[in-house]
Amino acid sequence: MRILHTSDWHLGRSFHRVPLLDAQAVFLDHLVETVARHEVDAVVVAGDVYDRAVPPLTAVRLFDDALHRLAAAGVPTVMISGNHDSARRLGVGAGLIARAGIHLRTDPADCATPVVLPDAHGDVAFYGLPYLEPALVRDTLGADRAGHEAVLTAAMDRVRADLATRPDGTRSVVLAHAFVAGGEPSDSERDITVGGVAAVPAGVFDGVDYVALGHLHGCQTVTDRVRYSGSPLAYSFSEHTHRKTMWLVDLGPAGELAAERLDCPVPRPLARLRGRLGSLLEDPALERHREAWVEATLTDPVRPDEPMARLAERFPHVLALVLDPERAPEDPRASYAQRLDGRDDHQIAEDFVAHVRGRSGASEQERTVLRAAFDDVRVNDTVNEVSR
């Protein structure tokens, strides 16, 4: 069976206030054309179809059009909700839509109810594990604790139990939206940390033939059978080195696997430039970035006059300006952003406790309280967004 694996469309998202809906439409055109050109048997979309729980109508129309075209092509599509989606909204009408070959898996309770698609060699069972917010799904899945590894393990135990009841030779594909250890994140994914831990081991998914992952925006191979397709478009400048692709996966009669990366259309390249303003304006080597979306980091000791306007004369598509003055590390004027670079909210809170106590840090009990407070805020935000 030939499977096209994609994820993280984030329909409705902008890039530094530049609307991306036209670029997303071009990608979906490319997706439908790829399905026909490569004679794809099934499409899997591993979450974050939309960028937010209540997407704009223009994004909904684009999604609706894509579903109609895939259904008209007669190619079954299996998709799950991600942490950016409202699972309830995305799953509305799932039973009716399934009659057209579009299978939405948004309810954690249904994770062990596969979409079974036949080919010349037998059945392939597609199991959809939507994004599993630990505090919200722990009881549903019977997990022993509220953590990402615990709820994914409970879900996969159900998958393996169902698979054991299937006829011999049934092959299996799992769609999941999660941060799996070994994956490389970027700046554009929403934090899903719980209790200080976001990543789960790849071994959680043992026992199935292919795992189609979503959430991380870089296309990457965790193991030969566990892969991220990544997002089809760049959503932050941290993705400037990404090659945006989809996975074309051939699943053989005995579970043999071959995977090929297929490039996605690039609306405009990204460039991260760094240096003093004069150098960025005059260096001939930078001319190749003239048509790119540009993030410029200026290292001038003193902020230049009208830097964005001057940069825009050479780089018409400059979108972001970062000021990082050249200063000695011991300089008391070193920026606050520099001191916080690479530190999460919980670490920053612990630093504050140490600061106000004259360098006496938080106790283990206090760190636990801080961690629980941040987890509660994140879960409450998730619940509020889903219920809107």
TrEMBL record:
Record keywords: DNA recombination, DNA replication, Endonuclease, Exonuclease, Hydrolase, Nuclease
Signal peptide: none
One Pfam family linked to the record: Metallophos
Top-rank taxon, per record: Bacteria
Domain Calcineurin-like phosphoesterase: 1-218
One annotated GO molecular function: exonuclease activity
Domain Nuclease SbcCD subunit D C-terminal: 267-355
InterPro entries linked to this entry: Calcineurin-like_PHP (IPR004843), DNA_Repair-Maintenance_Comp (IPR050535), Metallo-depent_PP-like (IPR029052), Mre11_N (IPR041796), SbcD (IPR004593), SbcD_C (IPR026843)
Matching NCBIfam families: sbcd
Family: Belongs to the SbcD family.
Entry function: SbcCD cleaves DNA hairpin structures. These structures can inhibit DNA replication and are intermediates in certain DNA recombination reactions. The complex acts as a 3'->5' double strand exonuclease that can open hairpins. It also has a 5' single-strand endonuclease activity.
Subunit structure: Heterodimer of SbcC and SbcD.
The protein's name in its UniProt record: Nuclease SbcCD subunit D
Native source species: Streptomyces flavovirens
Gene that produces this protein: sbcD
